[in-house]
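WARN  no MSA supplied for this record, continuing single-sequence
INFO  ligand: zinc ion
INFO  echoing inputs
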Amino acid sequence: MLFSALFFMIDTFNNNIYQQTLSKAVLVSGIGLHSGVNVSMRLLPASEDYGIRFIRTDLEKNNQIEALWSNVSDTQLSTTISNNFGVTVSTIEHLMSALSGLHIDNLKIEIDGPEVPIMDGSSKEFVKIIDSIPIKNLNKKRKIIKIKKEIKVTKKDTSVELKPNNQFSIDFEIDFPSLLISKQSCQLQLINGNYKTDIASARTFGFEEDVDFLRSNGFALGGSLDNAVVVGKDKILNKEGLRYKDEFVRHKILDSIGDLYLAGAPILGYFYGNKSGHHLNNLLLRTLFSDVSNYEYI
Ligand SMILES: [Zn+2]
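INFO  complex generated
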């Protein structure tokens, strides 16, 4: 069995203590992984303390959804948020991960459909697009959520944890029956700006044997070898192979960074995930915010 461990550092807060947004609007378009619908988004500069908000431009009213843990309404296969009127945006996690990795605190996202484009299955394209325009510093300081107590959520043999730590570090373990994945673990500290090189390119993945079932249930309708790693019985079906030897666990980290950014601010603490996913990530944030003594804003 393959067991790989990695230790490297990436940066969550960089040295800039001020909130950031984009300096101008940028257009992104592509197909939704599950809906199969073509969608266009405009990422627009936003002011201090605006946070990250989606605006469904295909709807005339009640079309604003804040990217917050309390708005998460579905975690089956992807993270979906909704507002009080039942308006949703799904598969937000890879874009949220890119915004966290690039320290974008405030952003208005106009989207003309129900699902964020999957791009190449990772957050690499979002990073490239955002990186192509200058970041704008705002006048207000960034707030950070400092973890003060250990919090753990367990479900069967899966779990997630947050612990006090003076860096944002992530430790993740997966264990799949497929010998092409099996056990992988990855630990990193978010310090030196290598989200782009070490995490952003890790693609989402699925199993060839699940494709028919997913499609017959209305999932993965936009999925292809261009936007997911597909694991067959004895080989990876993508001609180009893997981008990292342990791309699977790195993608789980990419997802977790995106889901945790729904806290509404960067987290200062240690995160551990064991075979977990979007559902437990959201439960962890709900548990965190259920008791004000669990955290403080700094
Ligand atoms: Zn993902």
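The longest strand covers residues 38-45.
INFO  checksum written, moving to next record
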